[in-house]
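Final paragraph of the annual report: two paired records, presented back to back.
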Amino acid sequence: MRRGRRKQGGDDAEVDMTPMLDIVFIMLIFFIVTATFLDEKGVDLTQPPPPPDTDIPTKSTPAITVYVDGRDQCSVDGQATICDRVVLRVERLLADKPGASVILRLDESARHQLLIELKDELDTKGYASKIEILRGTGA
């Protein structure tokens, strides 16, 4: 009868893991020794030093200001001028201030046609000019 018979050595069998751990450590050492590491260069994020104070210009460029107010009245450097004669007045001032830039300041409520005419006349004479529209200063 087989029922009463027991197996010897049954379920208590264990596997010895020591050789497997030895192999894992040997492989780990092998890969660490044979690995090549890249020499990556980073980006230099340091800012350059500020320029020395001696580079600051001591003399500013003169400017001639042409202003057209909200009632289409012109003035050149604060002196009232007839709008048809603005370019002649600018020419006289440029004789006194060679190399000066011309700034056209126009009130936002002034006629833009007047600005276009003044700009075209100055461009025809070869005078470079900058346009500024002033807001909220209408008369």
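The closing record of the year follows.
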Amino acid sequence: MKKVSLVVTLLLILSTVLSACGGAAAPAAQAPAADAGAAAPAAPSGEVVTIEYALWDANQLPAYQACADAFMAANPNIKVNITQSGWNDYWNTIQTGMVAGTAPDVFTDHLAKYPEFAAKEQLVDIQPYVDADGVDLGVYLGQLADLWARDGKRFGLPKDWDTIAIVYNQNALDAAGVTLDELNNATWDLETGGTFQELIAKLSVDENGNNGLSPDFDPTKVKQYGLIINGAGEGYGQTEWSWLAATTGWRHIDELYATKYNYDDPRFTGTIQWYADNMKKGFIMPLEQVSSLGGSAAFNSGLGALHSNGSWMIGDFVNNATFPFGFARLPQGPEGRKSMFNGLADSIWVGTKHPAEAWQWVKYAASKECADKVGEFGVVFPAQQSGVDKALAAYAAKGVDVSAFTLQATEPDGTFLFPVTDHASEISAIMGPVMQSVMLGESEAAVALPAANEEVNALFK
């Protein structure tokens, strides 16, 4: 396994290398956003203004509470009240709140969501604030800042970034005689499944102790699955299938804000069919079980040997895995290893009664000071290099090697951007049921996905 010192060295060139996937290199200077902790103007009456702030990730709540505490100490006229809820409830609350006039002043936003909010004019354009305060957008790694801007407007400042890796159960690998070197150098292709398919077959064990390479293996009575994913992935498949489909050269879209998706591409349909076929073989946990148990929860309880997930989940495995675990590299496909590159930002609801104070909190939450605090918690990789360095030190102190994620980020052409377009909720509504039907074995990918692609692309006409 790679030493942390090597990771630190590689991360120092992260901003430069990420530009290979379309981003602009971040400058070496890592100064905080201008006046990040400066006090906001006091309310006219002198009373304390409360900013309601929402996020969905429970793992990040302590880190951002620490940021909020520091911010409130410097800004006694502003109180930041943080509310956390799970992913599905979170977005339902945000959307209904915007209609009812009860949405939080500031909320953690996602690239799949913000274009729709922006199109409905539900978000504050913060570019005038950025210009007025002289916020240096160059401190953010790669193309992260650009992802939150469109047509001269800006709807967030980057807070973090993420990549995907393979989480492994060390006990399962040892029992099967699979080495980490084998896993780190696994290959995959559409025709044979490569050595990655051989590994997940070997790591799949039925109730009688037969593995997936044995003719006696019973796919209806599996005790341990070779691979667990998080679900059908709807139209994005960030942790589920994007990292395999992209190794064929396939991409969701050809450019940011494209008006055409590529779900009809044989490389994509073939990849999704591979997942469905291996679920039927008993090598990948069937969708019914994943939907019931949850992918990471099932893995943490010992029901699988391998699990694909994002760097934002590192802390979850540290806290909840019931066995020794580690992180391995993604398998190499025809065009190498590929991971989606994503990042979050905070947006301001247009209905806030305190836009100036909301902006001060958004600016601070994306500042170097907050990034460093978040990094020290070791839950995500902040969007600024100093925060990344803090995170690496925090992971090292916990004895956790995170190089599978960071090496992927620094590898030339190792990442591709999250597909940002309009109509995200409608795309998910179309693709969700279709992807489920394929993975449940109710339809064939080569038939169902091209038909769904026509519906998706019709949204842009």
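The two ends are 50 Å apart (CA to CA). This concludes the annual technical report; the extension proposal builds directly on these records.
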